[in-house]
Amino acid sequence: MSAVRERLRFLRSFLASPRGVGAVIPTSRRAVRDTLALAPPADARIVVELGAGTGVYTREILAQLGPDGRLLAFEIDAALASALAAELTDPRLTVVNESAEELPRHLDGEGADLIVSALPFTSLPAELRHRILRVASESLSRDGTMLVLQYSRFVERALRATFASVERRISPINVPPAFLFACRGTADAVAQAS
Fold first, then answer.
1. How far apart are CA 58 and CA 71, in angstroms?
2. Cα–Cα dist 50/138, whole Å
3. Is a pLDDT exceeding 70 seen at residue 15?
């Protein structure tokens, strides 16, 4: 897909649902690579993408994913999900046109080794934000990681309340600069071990 068409599709989606999309243009490829460098998908069996949009992360995850890996890409916008499924016909990819809250139903009892999220947590209602983070943390495998890209540090408090370990970096080349978080373990597990 051309960069112009991708941006136009993304902009239409933003105009239809600004709070659900959270950005006017897709994340830069540099920020995507910076995010995935925190937990490369190469050895992951199951990778989940929350908020696939036009596929900026999807393409890079597939490029790095091993031949036996599986990618579940969640996108709640039906038009974006349909376009992504039509464009990317990789057999390792399943595009799911549902809310990220439905993640456990699609894992068949397995844990995700990697969850990658560009959901606009800052603009989501607090209750929905907490439900999605809880579902994501509970869906990770024992050694799994959740990567989160945001355009502010607002969500960091919720991440630290949900996960045992949260690492933060900045991708300054993105417009605007992006905050990248690598989240591991659950806060509950740490509390129970104490």
1. 8
2. 15
3. no
If one counts every other C-beta atom within 10 angstroms of the C-beta of residue 102, the result is: 12
Peptide bond into 26 cis (omega under 30): no
Q: What single letter denotes the amino acid at residue 22?
A: G
Bridge partners (DSSP) of residue 72 are 48, 94
Q: How many domains does the chain have?
A: 1
Q: Which amino acid is at 121?
A: F
Residue 24 sits in which domain range?
3-193
Radius of gyration, alpha carbons of the chain: 15
The answer to whether the predicted template modeling score (pTM) of the entire model surpasses 0.70 is yes
Residue found under tokens 């709070």: 19
Between CA 137 and CA 144, with CA 142 as vertex, the angle to 5 degrees is 60
Element (H, E) at 171: strand 163-171
Cβ of 5: how many Cβ atoms within 10 Å?
11
For 172-189, the pLDDT digits (tens) are: 888 788 999 999 998 765
> What DSSP designation does 110 have?
P
